[in-house]
Amino acid sequence: MIDVRRPAAAAAAGKHSADSGESAAVRIKDLTKQFGALRAVDALSLDIRRGETVALLGPNGAGKTTTISMLLGLLAPDAGEISVLGMAPTQAVQSGRIGAMLQEGSLMPGVRVGELLDYVLGLCASPMPRERMLAMTGLQGLERRRVDRLSGGQTQRVRFALAIASQSEVLVLDEPTAAMDVEARHAFWASMRDYTDAGRTVLFATHYLEEAEAFASRVVVIAHGRIVADGTVADLRRSFGMPTVQFRSPVDGSQAFDVLAGVFEVQRQGEQVTLKTTDTDSTIRDLTASAIAWHGIEIHGPTLDDVFLTLVGEAQTGEDQ
Amino acid sequence: MTGYLRLELMRSLRDPRYLLLAVVAPVGFYLLFAALFGQYTANGVSTSVLLMVSMSVYGAMWAVLSATGPRIAQDRSVGWLRQLKLLPVQPRAVLTARLIAALLLAGPALALVFATATISHGVRLDAWHWLALLGLLWVGVVPIGALGLAIGYATDAESAFGLLYGLYMVLAALGGLWMPISILPSGLQTIGKLLPSYRAADLGWRLVAGRAIDVQSVLMLAAWAIILGLLALFFAKRRATAR
């Protein structure tokens, strides 16, 4: 695992984890789960402080869902320890201190949305006010509808309502927007912001990089059941991505650009030239000093896609060795 | 627990299959059979009264079976049981509510056949006889509820309904609910008399005939409830430990 947090942040995290169990929202130590020959989760350790919003990012099959299932007490680990607010996962669920929304799963067939919500609110020690819950999830007007006659997006909203009903301190979401269209996704994250403004801890799994970037204060990248990077989005970009210099040029081929300082890779599309570089300053200085004709120069920071591919690619290579 | 009980009752009362098979069918069959055989008597009791007992047990059996087996299998396969595990509710409370709901749903099935018999064939019993009959038959279908639970945990949603409906038909036919058990060949009679369906109905048949309750029936029903209950527990535990 590569810890790319800046020293101050890393030190703060270290100090926190030295405190009593209460300061950590989630504490996972050497968690391992094996399915037959597949090691789905491999000695994974992760501490999440209270109030953090953490994205668990990884390709399909990386172990995100397995990790979350164990965190919620749905699956027993083969080895390792998990605690949620200092409690065992099932205890945290039973006491309403952790709420969750899974990737799939229907609701109780045959009952109405309103009946189901009232039942769940009735279970909670300090339930969210009903009207607020309906407003946040956009379920007004659907209360009389039977849950087995909802669209996929509407079902998802009911499941979100169930997850937040107990106003739990910790909220876990496994690919919450997987079944949503773009509009629904925006609406979902808007209501999530609403919810987390109160300083709640959120852990969400996703394979949408933009979601991690827009919503998470910390990104944990996971591949093959292990954490391969952990830090803020900016940290990850800095450490693993390469910026690009783009411009238009009539000069043919890529050789003329390949020799410029710092250039790692040249891409051509007609007149459009894209240079991946380790140092944009040197590359541009070299370019302006050269005889190459160019116009319309633009500099772009590294994309998260690059970062992600680099990280997951590295994990893959590590696996093959 | 009462919250979940309410949800279970609501969904059954809205389910056309429950209403059709557990309430409408036994009432319809009662009317048919009583019209055909109602004028006969057996052991001094009118067939219209004996049929009332048979058909009310027939309806009550399906009420408890349909509210346990297929429902548990369906809830599991659509992922609702998993969803429930994420809510602050004890799994035991859910199971208890489900069982109580299933038994409560047997009530309308019993009562409507009683009412039909009273209206269509003028069946009259003392008030305490009605109450005793209702109570005995209600308790009598408890082992059937345990059977529903066991099948619900043992099978998946596709096979639970068919399997339970098949078992239901066998229990009804061999248990002497469709026709007197004395008509059956002696080998099948021996088997039939071991079944909880026969034993539950036998409690009622004896009551309406003014005969003493057969202790053997009570013991057999208790044995069935325990065996099937343990079986249900075994399958439920196996599900819980599976991946």
Please render the helix and strand layout as text.
The complex is a heterodimer of chains A (321) and B (243).
Chain A: E1 2-3, H1 7-18, E2 24-35, E3 38-49, E4 53-57, H2 64-71, E5 79-84, H3 89-94, E6 98-101, H4 113-123, H5 130-137, H6 152-164, E7 170-174, H7 182-196, E8 201-206, H8 209-215, E9 218-223, E10 226-231, H9 233-240, E11 244-248, H10 255-258, E12 263-269, E13 272-277, H11 280-289, E14 295-300, H12 304-320
Parallel strand pairs in A: 1-10, 4-8, 4-9, 6-7, 7-8
Antiparallel strand pairs in A: 2-3, 2-5, 9-10, 11-13, 11-14, 12-13
Helix pairs in contact in A: 5-6, 9-12
Chain B: H1 2-13, H2 16-37, E1 41-42, E2 45-46, H3 47-78, H4 80-84, H5 91-121, H6 127-140, H7 142-154, H8 157-174, H9 186-192, H10 196-208, H11 215-241
Walk me through the structure.
The complex is a heterodimer of chains A (321) and B (243). Chain A is of the alpha/beta class. Helix content of chain A is 37%, strand content 27%. Chain A has helices at 7-18, 64-71, 89-94, 113-123, 130-137, 152-164, 182-196, 209-215, 233-240, 255-258, 280-289, 304-320, and strands spanning 2-3, 24-35, 38-49, 53-57, 79-84, 98-101, 170-174, 201-206, 218-223, 226-231, 244-248, 263-269, 272-277, 295-300. Chain A has a 7-stranded mixed sheet with strand order 1-10-9-4-8-7-6, sandwiched between helices. Chain A has a 4-stranded antiparallel sheet with strand order 12-13-11-14, covered by helices on one side. In chain A, a hairpin with a 2-residue loop joins strand 2 and strand 3 (38-49). Chain A is elongated. By secondary structure, chain B is mainly α. Chain B has 11 helices and 2 strands; from the N terminus they run ααββααααααααα. In chain B, strands 1-2 form a two-stranded antiparallel ribbon. In chain B, a hairpin with a 2-residue loop joins strand 1 and strand 2 (45-46). The model of chain B has no long low-confidence stretch (mean pLDDT 92). Classes of the chains: A alpha/beta (321), B mainly alpha (243). At the A-B interface, helix 4 and helix 6 of A face helix 1, helix 3 and helix 4 of B.
